[in-house]
Amino acid sequence: MRKFLGVSLFVCLVSLAGVAQETPKPEVFGGYQFTTLGPSPRWNASGWNGSASMYITRWVGVTGDFSGAYSSGLSFHTYTFGPVVSTHKGRISPFAHALFGGAHASDSVSGTSGFAMQFGGGVDVGHKQFALRLVQADWLITRFSGFTDKNNARVSTGILMRF
């Protein structure tokens, strides 16, 4: 029993040392995006992209990402959530994420909703309250009405604010 208590105390102390590392502050991003969809003919559109990230540890967090793209009377929106990994070292912070959720495509008459997955990452520059997201590039997979399209991409840039 003494060995068990000793090992338990040791594990707790080691865990506290890991938790003591400073976790990054919550982040909110907003900016411009360019989206390209579909196999043929391609649909290219511009719009907005916004996300919020909360970090659980120094490296790992959770992100909610929302976007809208518009062109030729058509609109495409995504709402995805998932894990993010970032280094948060110095002025340059590369990150990668895997996001899962939904998408909605519509025109002036009708619309349809489906499943969306985004795999990608980017680079943030700046370590104070405000930073610049130089680039965020995502491979976008959509599934509408039983049809899966894997030939989509999204590129974003904008301002990042840390609280």
Describe what this molecule looks like in 3D.
The chain has a single domain, classed as Porin (Beta Barrel). It has one helix at 2-19, and strands spanning 27-37, 43-55, 60-71, 74-86, 92-106, 111-125, 130-144, 147-162. It has an 8-stranded antiparallel beta barrel. The protein is mainly beta and 163 residues long. It has 1 helix and 8 strands.
Main attributes of the structure:
163 residues; Porin; 11% helix; elongated
Strand content is: over 45%
Average of pLDDT? 89
Specify Rg, calculated over alpha carbons. 20 Å
Number of domains: 1
Oligomer: single chain
Give the SSE order as H and E letters: HEEEEEEEE
Global morphology: elongated
Structural class: mainly beta
The third-level CATH topology is: Porin
SS field, number of helical segments:
1
| Strand numbers in spatial order across the main sheet | 1-2-3-4-5-6-7-8
Q: Would you identify the CATH architecture?
A: Beta Barrel
N-to-C CA distance: 46 Å
Number of strands: 8
As residue ranges, the low-confidence spans are: 11-17
Topology readout:
Layout: H1 2-19, E1 27-37, E2 43-55, E3 60-71, E4 74-86, E5 92-106, E6 111-125, E7 130-144, E8 147-162
In brief:
The chain is mostly beta strands and 163 residues long. It has one helix at residues 2-19, and strands at residues 27-37, 43-55, 60-71, 74-86, 92-106, 111-125, 130-144, 147-162. The protein has one domain: Porin.
